[in-house]
Design goal:
- The complex is a heterodimer.
- Helices cover 36% and strands 26% of the residues of chain A.
- Chain A is built from ten helices and ten strands.
- In chain A, strand 7, helix 7 (171-186) and strand 8 (190-195) form a beta-alpha-beta unit.
- In chain A, helix 3 runs parallel beside helix 6.
- Chain A is globular.
- Chain A starts with 5 loop residues before the first strand and ends with a helix.
- Chain B is mainly α.
- Chain B contains ten helices and two strands; from the N terminus they run ααααββαααααα.
- The chains are: A alpha/beta, B mainly alpha.
- The interface between A and B is medium-sized, with 29 and 17 residues.
- The structure holds adenosine-5'-diphosphate and magnesium ion.
- Magnesium ion (MG) binds next to helix 1 of chain A.
Chain lengths: 239, 284
């Protein structure tokens, strides 16, 4: 399963004159779940946007499944197996749940699988099936997050990029979102998840990177990071 | 009910059907590409000349002339996007509006050079038909039915196809579309082609009721833009309903006064609406 490995090497990136990432390197192996944690403004979202081609790195490179993504247009990445659930979900609020799923299955390779994958999404989230004809914008935050993840699954990805899926959700719903990530992992999907909820995410991922002001400040196995006194003090409210 | 008033009401609805097509086309392009095609009525004018030329001059069968007209104006829509709109996409919206406004004068000028300012009539007419208690022009009724069919086909396309769903999605959030595997540039092209095709269909329905000349766009262009704004720019359903409202106002206004007066009433109504609901009558 060499195909699903993602590697980012010494990436510098930013917006106009502003530099947000300073030589970030990161690796996600097939079947792994990897977390990226760090405070607001650290560059986590920017990192995911570099991976999915929404912004281009100034230097450094991004490789997925052995392919250099530097010259690949962003809209061709879902067909390569990269699905990105963006920050704030970005559902289409005026479309129904099922129509949102249809947009997620837009690529030529995904269309023949629409019904099978939709039904799979409905078994993962029975709520979505109940609400399939409801406008996405009328659902609760948790349901919208489930729908956004479902929409990403519709392309049949090898790797799922999640940007703060638990943001703005009630604690119980946060729990459901992380349970879901666990189940998606068990199905063999590779996951890269960005979170500010460090305590929770470290229970789901195998390894994690700590990003601070655009640099990797620490990395390691989840258990090791969770035990690290510096991490505990900064992110886990421990001592 | 006064049979003449009833006739005015029926004619208003028929008129609304014909307004609806260019309104849908403009709203589609605006919703997707975020650019107002100021030269939209002139695309219709080109289509009217195409039907007239192929049918009256070349002697082609009318359905073939119609089909070629729709295809031709669809290609014009694509060219308009590629040559005029796309190079200006990153510029302030006013530049795009001015550029498509420039195309308006170019099309009028070219049409004058090729066809002169003479009025050209197709000379096809269908016998009047009795609808309920009133007689209506068979041509107008056929045009109305074709307009409804066109609008229905557009609705089904937007509702049930992948590309149609992506078109509705991109109208709300273009930045996220690449993450769905959608190339926005391709969707812009498709929307421009459909916008052009709707102008072409409108041309087919107008040329059977209206003589064509280089400035014929002025007789329905302004009202089309007014309807779009009234229905909420980019709002397809709102524009569709507003088209019928405007058709009724003009037709019934003409029943009580003169046709000229009815356009004044329609325009006054538009201004009042803009004061009361600047976001459009049917904006959510
Ligand atoms: N579109 C943008 N234009 C300019 N600066 C941006 C933009 N998006 C993010 N930034 C800046 O880049 C830095 C990293 O942002 P981001 O990647 O969103 O951080 P995080 O996701 O970790 O909160 C922040 O300082 C932010 O202000
Ligand atoms: Mg972020």
């Amino acid at each position: 399963m060499e195909q699903a490995s993602l590697s980012i090497d010494a990436v510098h990136a930013g917006y106009g004159d502003f530099q947000a990432l300073f030589g970030v390197s990161l690796r996600v192996d097939p079947g792994e779940a990897v977390g990226v944690v760090g405070p607001n403004g650290a560059g986590k979202t920017t990192l995911l946007r570099v991976i999915s081609g929404l912004i281009r790195p100034r230097s450094g490179n991004v490789r997925f499944a052995g392919q250099d993504l530097a010259k690949v247009p962003a809209h061709t990445l879902p067909a390569l197996g990269i699905a990105h659930v963006p920050e704030n979900r970005r559902l289409f609020p005026h479309l129904t749940v099922e129509e949102n799923l249809r947009v997620g299955a837009f690529t030529a390779a995904a269309r023949p699988h629409f019904e099978a994958r939709r039904d799979h999404v409905y078994t993962l989230f029975p709520r979505m099936k109940e609400r399939r004809h409801q406008l996405a914008g009328t659902m609760s935050g948790g349901e919208q997050q489930m729908c956004a993840i479902g929409r990403a699954l519709m392309s049949g990805p090898k790797i799922l990029l999640l940007d703060e899926p638990s943001a703005g959700l009630a604690p119980l719903v946060v729990q459901q979102v992380f349970d879901l990530v666990r189940r998606i992992r068990q199905e063999g999907l590779t996951v890269l998840i960005v979170e500010q909820n460090v305590a929770q995410v470290l229970r789901v991922v195998d390894r994690a990177y700590v990003l601070e002001t655009g640099r990797v400040a620490a990395e390691g196995a989840s258990a090791a990071l969770a035990a690290d006194p510096v991490i505990r003090r900064s992110y886990l409210g421990g001592h | 009910m006064d049979p003449f008033l009833l006739e005015a009401l029926v004619n208003g609805i028929l008129l609304g059907g014909v307004f609806a097509l260019p309104v849908l086309g403009l709203n589609l392009v605006f919703g997707v590409v975020d650019v107002v095609w100021l030269c939209y009525a002139e695309l219709v004018m080109v289509g009217m000349y195409a039907v007239w030329f192929f049918y009256s001059q070349m002697g082609w069968p009318l359905p073939l002339a119609f089909a070629v007209c729709i295809g031709l104006v669809a290609v014009l829509g694509v060219l308009l996007h590629l040559l005029v709109v796309r190079p200006l996409l990153t510029q302030p919206p006013i530049n795009q509006v001015l550029a498509t406004g420039g195309v308006l004068f170019v099309l009028q000028g070219v049409a004058t050079l090729i066809f002169s300012t003479e009025f050209r009539a197709l000379g096809v007419d269908m016998p009047p038909m009795e609808v309920g208690e009133v007689f209506v022009s068979g041509t107008k009724l056929a045009a109305f039915c074709a307009a409804l069919l066109g609008a229905g086909a557009l609705w089904a396309f937007l509702k049930f196809t992948y590309v149609g769903t992506a078109i509705r999605a991109i109208a709300r959030d273009r930045e996220v579309m690449p993450l769905m595997g959608v190339d926005p540039q391709r969707i812009y092209l498709i929307a421009s082609a459909i916008g052009g095709a709707l102008a072409g269909l409108a041309a087919c329905l107008l040329i059977v009721q209206l003589d064509v000349h280089p400035f014929v766009g002025l007789s329905f262009g302004p009202i089309t833009f007014m309807i779009c704004v009234m229905g909420g720019l980019g709002n397809m359903l709102g524009g569709f309903l507003a088209a019928f409202l405007m058709g009724l106002i003009i037709s019934v206004g003409g029943f009580w006064g003169t046709t000229e007066l009815s356009y004044v009433v329609a325009f006054a109504f538009f201004i009042v609406v803009m004061f009361i609901r600047p976001q459009g009558l049917f904006a959510r």
